[in-house]
Amino acid sequence: MYPFVPELPQTIALQDGTLLIPPMAIQVTVFPNSGFTICINFSHVVTDGKAFHSFIKFWSSLCRSKENNLVALPLHDRDIIQDPNELNPIFLESVWNSPREFIMNPIYNVPNDRVRHRFVLKREQVEILKRLVYTKYQSLLHVSTFVVTCALIWVCKVKSSEDDIKSSGNDEELYLSFWVDCRYLAELKIPLTYFGNCLVNGIVGIKRSKLVGQNGIFEAAAALRSKIKELQSGPYERAETLMSIFSKFATMGHRMTGIAGSPKLDAYESDFGWGKPKLSEVLHVNSPELVSLSDCRDKEGGIEVGVAFGRAQMQKFNTILEEILANIALHDHEKVQVFG
Fold first, then answer.
1. Is 73 in contact with 288 (CB distance < 8 Å)?
2. Could you tell me the pTM of the whole model?
3. What's the pLDDT tens digit per position in 135-169?
């Protein structure tokens, strides 16, 4: 898929200190008699995934010329965002000091044995997972699709990883990094159409022995739910360290797993007049350290999950995932101890 990816123009530093960062590059590739692709490379300095997909939906609504149902225009009013902790200069300095290749958001070369795989978690599978987690931890009043999906994939990824198997004697802390969209926090009063970056980062850490143990999925789900609740109640807490999170990925290797995307982005709802896309792919998810989540094109309430592993790990990952899903399908919510 990489030949379809456009390169962003070079970032330019002017004499007066202004940094010109190209926001986006678009490439359309036409396959004769077979359709086409629209591949967009955009800088996260400019916008996050929610705003990006809002832009795509507005663009696609313009293309449906026979209809008069334009989606709402992206909102660019920066005054909506309050900055009680004076984060703006901190973030600007971080961007300025970042390597230019980080700002350009490139698609790096990947090993030849790397395999990209996308699979669907069905709605009924997700609902069973929710029931199992709730039965185990009844104090968790609301267990979301995002929480149980991340917990399941994290456990499968760790169990299938050669790096983690080799370090099994070292009960090290493993981490999962994810993002919470502040547009959905009612107290901040940020419209869903706001165009820009409006995210806070959450990281949870669990000992490897617990994550791969009998209750691994439950442990992961409880930690994720607790961290999300914490971020929702205090989104500005430690926000000044947000930009430094990115540097941790480079040094933590297999110990850090990052979640990209979200089912709430509704990637398959962008209709240019020919119906839903046949495929929506997050191309920078090309390493074992990243996992993508998306809504599902054909299954109501399903979740598309994208991973990229070496061939050997991919086979192990698929086997472990299939075993867990088959196991939960055979047991009701009263038998929560049978999988981990």
1. no
2. 0.87
3. 877 666 678 999 999 999 999 999 998 665 555 56
Residues 6 or more apart from 268 whose CB is under 8 A from it? 276, 277, 280, 294, 295, 296, 297
Q: Which CATH number fits domain 50-338: 3.20.20.140, 3.30.559.10, 1.20.1250.20, 3.30.230.40?
A: 3.30.559.10
Tokens at 20, concatenated: 């010109």
The four Cα atoms 185, 189, 193, 194 give a dihedral, to 10 degrees, of -100
Pairwise CA distance, residues 317 & 171, whole Å? 21
DSSP 272: S
Query: Cα(20)–Cα(217) distance, rounded to whole angstroms?
Result: 44
Helix (H) or strand (E) run with residue 225 in it: helix 216-233
Q: How far apart are CA 263 and CA 260, in angstroms?
A: 10
